[in-house]
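FAQ: What does the model actually see?

It sees only this:
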Amino acid sequence: MSLSPRSSTLRRVAAVGDLPALARLHALHSKERPNTPSEPIHYTQTKPVWEVFFSESDSEEETPIRITRVHMWRDNVEVGALPVTLTSKEPVLMPTKPTKRLPKPYLTPRRIVALAAFFVFFYIFNKVIMAFSLGKIRTECLKGFASSASIFESLGTPYPWVSSSRLSDTQDTFENYKYRDTCQISSLDLHVPFDPLCTDRSSMLMAMSSGGRIGHDAPYMPRGCDMRWFSTEEICRILSRFDKLIIVGDSMMRHIIGSLNVLIRKDLGYGAVTDWNFTPEERSECFCNFQFNVKACSMQGIFKTADVVKHDPESIACSPGSIDLMIEQMIRFPIALDEIERYKVLLGSTKPKKPYAFVFGHGLWNDLDLQATLDWLDQILEMTTEQLPYLKEKDSFWPRLFITPNAAGKEKPSEWIVSQGNKALMIFEESVKTQVELRGIEHLGTWNMSIQSNKFDGVHVDLKGNLIKAMMVLNWLNMLDVERH
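And it is asked to produce this:
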């Protein structure tokens, strides 16, 4: 039995059992009633509970108790009510219609707390499962696309989204290059491999031309399908399939042949320049990323591998005599006579045992004048067929690629923003693609690749950007069906 205070003379007593128990309850209450009439008495048992309401007189000489109503509860739900007349000796029940069963509240405070606890637990559990499922590699992968892919080297595991046949693409191919640590350039800083690979030249050129970066100077990714990032040994094999790789154009094209020499010489510090005859000042100014600084190092660039063979043959990783790369600078239209003569000498007049491959690039020196560029190209094509008549034959194999200029950077002089700004460059790239394809020449755009790359003067990309362009050219060369011709 427990006691609790109540301010009214209305008493509420919980009792157990059937109707005779009410008499016992009354007798017990009359005999052992507490001194304070306002304190109700509660009886608790495991059987159905009757709730009894009664009133009593303030004077003990009068009738001590009069029970006015009885309510029956089961499992905390009221199941009925009966009016009662109860004297001190026996109860008299007057049955009546049971009261309507009261609905149990749905959102009790206890249930609200339980639901809140459940949702908190579910949220934490979901976070733990997601973190476990994605794992460390996926987390680092997302960071790598936005900054530098070289972080994957620390994981010690291959790229999970690249097929096992391309595991060589997941390695830093510059690991054994000279000045690798000094220049701090990894091949994984330039390109992150993914599947699938492009299956033909057309899709490859489209993917390389329309790709992009996730952040400034982040690794470049072709769009839709991937290109390869070749090792030096693979590069030597690709280049050896051709008698000559002839590059024709301006300083941007000269930087491509410079980057190819970096790759075949395995030298990130001086691979693109004639370091064998450098002064101490030149060795300082034309090192690593600054090999393509046109203001300080334009004349120190390598124009043909024959010069490397002559002055530093040990630096070439390819087999002696297996490759021949060269550039003939023809920067504007009309083409200078001395440039025409040099080009004819370079071509020779007989059909080689292995095919020539040609890469053209032009535009800025004629202020992106489309007609001037097409006239420049047509004159070179005409000179080439005059020197090499076999190229006019119906089934002749004449691989040609035209590369349009880089995107403009913030350092580009203001006087060139209108005629050579990014709007003009984008229009020029699209127009040239259409026109050169009508001439049977394939096209590679570099605006997307270079828009978020570093540029020395707002025009020329640095070593990283030029290495990407060189690798694009190598992917094109690799997909040429030389063996069938």
